Amino acid sequence: MARSLAGEFEHVVEEIARDDRFAGVEIVQHSTRGSGNKSVLSVTIDREGGVDVRTCERIASAINKRLQDFEEAYRLEVESAGLNRPLTKPGDYTRFAGRDAKIVTSLLVRGTKTHRGVLQGVRGTAVILKTESGELPLPIETIKTANLEYDVRADLKRAKEQRKQHA
Question: What is the CATH code for 90-151?
Answer without folding.
Answer: 2.30.30.100
